[in-house]
Design goal:
The protein is mainly α. It has a single domain (8-141), classed as Four Helix Bundle (Hemerythrin (Met), subunit A) (Up-down Bundle). Helix content is 55%, strand content 4%. The radius of gyration is 16 Å and the shape is globular. It starts with 7 loop residues before the first helix and ends in a 5-residue tail after the last helix.
């Protein structure tokens, strides 16, 4: 469950648990399946999530533990990064570390809570779509991502974030409309 009353630490913990379940559900032989992210396989989606979280931690001088390569063991690679990130978030000094971000002064926990938790939800769906597993995003997470997207405004279309919106029928469900807005063909 996600809501604005949940701490960044607990929000990450909850969304990382969902992402972990998606990673663990990937069937044998599906890691190299193409994902909705152009040019990326399911394995590369997980590598992106790991790499971007690691890079964010390094930006403030935090080194997260190294696991096996995503190429060799994507499940353990993700679990290792997740556990390291959670430990960093649970450390008040790291969580409260302030820096100048793209949108102004912020702190580590707030940045993870917004941008990197967003990635856990959206790339979790990408992974599920690529591997033929359950694509359902919990309703509370759909609402939360909608709020993040609204807060980002036109920045959501910056290079490397989301592609152009895809048209869907007015009758599409809320999850489908959100994913289409984020450039995913559903």
């Amino acid at each position: 469950m996600t809501s604005t009353s949940v701490s960044p630490q607990d929000h990450y913990r909850d969304l990382a648990a969902t992402f972990t379940a998606r990673v663990e559900a990937v069937p044998d032989g599906r890691w190299d399946a193409p994902s909705p992210c152009a040019g990326w396989s399911a394995r590369e989606v997980v590598a992106h999530v790991i790499d971007t979280q690691r890079e964010m931690a390094e930006r403030i001088g935090v080194t997260l533990p190294e696991g096996p390569s995503v190429e060799n063991d994507p499940v353990t690679a993700w679990r290792t990064l997740r556990d390291g990130m959670q430990a960093a978030l649970d450390d008040p000094d790291v969580a409260g570390h302030e820096f100048d971000g793209y949108f102004g002064r912020t702190d580590f926990a707030s940045t993870i809570d917004t941008f990197y938790c967003f990635d856990l939800v959206v790339h979790g769906w990408d992974l599920a779509r690529a591997t033929g597993t359950d694509e359902t995003i919990p309703d509370a997470d759909v609402v939360w991502v909608e709020n993040v997207v609204q807060g980002l405004g036109d920045n959501i279309r910056m290079e490397g974030i989301c592609g152009p919106a895809v048209e869907v029928p007015d009758s599409a469900d809320r999850q489908t409309k959100l994913l289409a807005y984020l450039g995913r063909t559903v």
